[in-house]
Design a protein that fits this description.
Blueprint (H helix, E strand, L loop, with lengths): L1 H12 L2 H9 L3 H15 L10 H18 L4 H20 L3 H6 L8 H27 L5 H17 L25 H18 L10 H27 L11 E5 L4 H5 L3 H13 L9 E4 L12 H10 L5 E11 L5 E11 L6 E7 L13 H6 L3 H5 L21 E5 L18 E7 L8 H16 L3 E6 L3 E4 L7 E3 L5 E5 L9 H5 L2 H24 L1
Parallel strand pairs: 1-2, 2-3, 6-7, 7-8
Antiparallel strand pairs: 1-11, 3-4, 4-5, 8-9, 9-10
Length: 540
C-alpha cells in the first residue's frame, strides 16, 4: 500500500500542470540552463540516434517556458531570447560537425572551426528567436498555441533555407529515418509538409497544461496520435505495394578511395590519389561495366584539362563506356581571370580521345565552405582570412538534366544540393534517376555524413526516383524510389562496388502538385491562428 501511495505521488508530480508550473516559477538564470539543456537533449532526435521523444520533451518544455514570456513586461524580447537559447543548443549540437571541416585542414584554419560552428549556430538560432518573439506577441494561452507554435517555427526553418542562408539541415521531418513507414508521407507532403506535421505532433503535449477544459487540452494529443497512426499505416501500405525493378543492360561501378583530406592535398597527394582511382577503376569486371562513377572532387586537379589522367583513363575505358566524375573546373573570363566551378562531367570513351557528353556546374554552394556570403563586405572590414579559407567557387547558371551519357536522363546533385526539396523537375522534364556525388571526407567520424545520407534519401521519396550516390568517406550506394538502400557502402570502404539502377516509380503526389498539400495545410493553419487572434482582439 505504501508503494502504491508513493507511486501515485510520483505520478502527481509528473502531471502536466505541475511540471509547467514548476517551469513557470524558475528564476531566470535557472530557466536559461533548462532551455539550453532541453535544446541539447532535443539534438538526440537527429540522425544517427533518431530518438524523437527527445524532441517531444524539448518542444513541450520550450512552449511552457515561452508561456512565461507571454505575460512578461516585454514579451517579444523575452520570447526571442528564450527561443534563441533553446535553438542555439538544439541546432548547434546537430551541426557541430561543421567545425571538423576546418580542423581537418589544420594549421591556421583550426581557429575558425569553433568560430563558424558557434557563430553559425547562433545565426541560425536567431530565426527561431524571431519566431519566439512573434509567438509570444500573439498572447495565446489555450491549446491553439500549439498550432501557432508550429506555424512560426516552420517559418523559422524555412528562413534557414532562403538563398542567403541556404541551410535547411535537419528539418523536424528528418527525425524519422528515411525509408521507414512514416517517412513515406514525404511522397505526399514533401519533407516540409512532414516537418510541419512533426512540429504539430511533437509539441501537442504542451496543450495538456494551461488554459482550457480537460477535453480541449487532451484533444491535440489525441489527434496527434491518430495522425501518427495514419502516417504509419499509409507508409506501410506504400512500402507493401512497392515493386522495384532495375534498368536492363546497365552496370554502374562506384569507386571509393579511402583517403584523408590532408593526404589528398599534401605534396604528392595528387599522384597518389590518381593512381588509386585508376587502379580501382581497372579492377576485375571492368569490361562488363557501362558507367564508372567517381565522387565529388575525386582528384585534386582539373580533370578535363589533365592530359595524363585522360590518357590513363583511355587505356582503361573503351567501347562507349562512360565516366561520371566530380571535378573542379575553371573558365577564363573576358578580363583574363579564372572563374572556378564545382562540377560533374560526363565523358564517353572510345578508341579515340573521349568526348565530353555532359557538364553540370553546382548551383547551390555551401556558405562558408565554397563561398563567403557578403564576402566583399566582410573583406572591407579587413577580415580577409575568412575569405581565403574557402574554395571561392562561382555558382552554376541553372539546374540541368543530363541526357547524353548513354544512360536514362538523370538529374545531378552535387553534395550539399541534395539537402534542398523541390529542385527536381516534374512533368515532361522529369528525369529517370538522380546522381548524387559528394565529398564527406571533410567531416570525419562525426554525425555529418550520416545526416547527409538520411536527408538525401528523402529526395528519393519526394520524387519517386532512384538515386545512385557516390560520396568520399561518406555513405555510397543505391537508394530506391522509397528511400531504402538495397546497396550500401560503408564510409571507410576502399574499393569498388558494381550496382544496378532501379527503375523510377510513378510520379509522387508531392512532385505532381509541387507540394500543394503542404501549402494548403500550412496556409489553412495560418488562417485559423489569425482568425482566433483577431477574434480575441475584438472580444477585448
Amino acid at each position: 500500500m505504501i508503494a502504491i501511495a508513493r507511486g501515485r505521488d510520483f505520478l502527481n508530480h509528473l502531471a502536466p500542470d505541475r511540471l509547467r508550473n514548476g517551469l513557470l516559477t524558475l528564476p531566470p538564470e535557472k530557466a536559461w540552463l533548462v532551455l539550453a539543456a532541453l535544446g541539447l537533449f532535443s539534438g538526440l532526435s537527429a540522425s544517427p540516434i533518431y530518438f524523437f521523444p527527445a524532441l517531444i520533451i524539448g518542444l513541450t518544455g520550450l512552449i511552457w517556458l515561452l508561456d512565461v514570456s507571454v505575460d512578461a513586461e516585454k514579451p517579444g524580447r523575452s520570447g526571442f531570447w528564450r527561443a534563441f537559447l533553446f535553438a542555439w543548443a538544439y541546432l548547434g549540437i546537430g551541426v557541430f560537425w561543421v567545425a571538423f571541416a576546418f580542423w581537418n585542414r589544420g594549421g591556421a584554419y583550426v581557429f575558425f572551426g569553433p568560430l563558424v560552428a558557434i557563430g553559425g549556430g547562433a545565426f541560425l538560432a536567431a530565426f527561431w528567436g524571431l519566431a519566439g518573439a512573434l509567438y509570444t506577441k500573439l498572447k495565446l494561452r489555450g491549446p491553439v498555441r500549439v498550432l501557432a507554435f508550429a506555424v512560426v517555427i516552420l517559418a523559422a526553418e524555412a528562413a534557414k533555407g532562403l538563398p542567403f542562408t541556404q541551410f535547411p539541415w535537419n528539418l523536424p521531418a528528418h527525425v524519422f529515418p528515411a525509408g521507414g513507414a512514416v517517412s513515406q508521407s514525404a511522397a505526399w507532403f514533401g519533407a516540409w509538409g512532414l516537418s510541419f506535421i512533426a512540429l504539430l505532433v511533437f509539441s501537442s503535449p504542451a496543450a495538456l497544461a494551461g488554459q482550457g477544459s480537460e477535453t480541449q487540452k487532451r484533444l491535440p494529443v489525441l489527434i496527434s496520435l491518430l495522425v501518427l497512426a495514419a502516417l504509419y499505416a499509409g507508409g506501410t501500405q506504400r512500402l507493401g505495394q512497392a515493386d522495384v525493378r532495375y534498368q536492363p543492360d546497365l552496370t554502374f561501378r562506384l569507386v571509393n578511395v579511402d583517403v584523408d583530406q590532408r593526404d589528398k592535398w599534401a605534396l604528392g597527394g595528387e599522384a597518389l590519389v590518381r593512381t588509386r582511382y585508376l587502379e580501382l577503376t581497372a579492377s576485375e569486371g571492368i569490361d562488363d561495366v557501362t558507367h564508372v562513377i567517381w565522387p565529388e572532387g575525386a582528384l585534386p586537379l582539373f580533370l578535363i584539362e589533365d592530359s595524363a589522367s585522360i590518357a590513363a583513363l583511355t587505356e582503361i575505358l573503351t567501347q562507349g563506356q562512360t565516366l561520371l566524375a566530380g571535378t573542379p573546373r575553371r573558365e577564363r573570363t573576358a578580363s583574363d581571370e579564372y572563374r572556378y566551378y564545382n562540377s560533374l562531367v560526363s565523358m564517353t570513351f572510345s578508341e579515340e580521345r573521349p568526348r565530353v557528353t555532359g557538364l553540370y556546374d553546382k548551383v547551390l554552394l555551401v556558405p562558408f565552405g565554397e563561398y563567403v556570403p557578403l564576402g566583399n563586405l566582410i573583406s572591407s572590414f579587413g577580415v580577409r582570412p575568412l575569405q581565403e579559407l574557402v574554395a571561392g567557387y562561382s555558382p552554376g547558371p541553372e539546374f540541368t538534366t543530363l541526357e547524353n551519357a548513354d544512360a536514362p536522363a538523370f538529374f545531378p546533385m552535387i553534395c550539399y544540393e541534395a539537402v534542398f526539396s523541390g529542385i527536381v523537375p516534374g512533368g515532361a522534364g522529369r528525369p529517370d534517376w538522380i546522381l548524387n556525388i559528394s565529398n564527406d571526407a571533410w567531416f570525419g567520424p562525426t554525425a555529418g555524413p550520416r545526416q547527409h545520407l538520411n536527408i538525401t534519401r528523402y529526395r528519393a521519396i519526394e520524387n519517386g526516383l532512384p538515386i545512385i550516390r557516390s560520396a568520399s568517406r561518406g555513405f555510397s550506394g543505391v537508394i530506391d524510389p522509397y528511400g531504402r538502400m538495397p546497396a550500401r557502402i560503408d564510409r571507410r570502404y576502399d574499393g569498388i562496388t558494381d550496382v544496378a539502377l532501379p527503375l523510377a516509380a510513378a510520379p509522387t503526389t508531392y512532385q505532381i502538385t509541387s507540394g500543394l498539400l503542404f501549402w494548403a495545410l500550412y496556409i489553412l493553419s495560418i488562417f485559423v491562428v489569425s482568425a482566433i487572434v483577431i477574434q480575441r482582439q475584438f472580444q477585448k
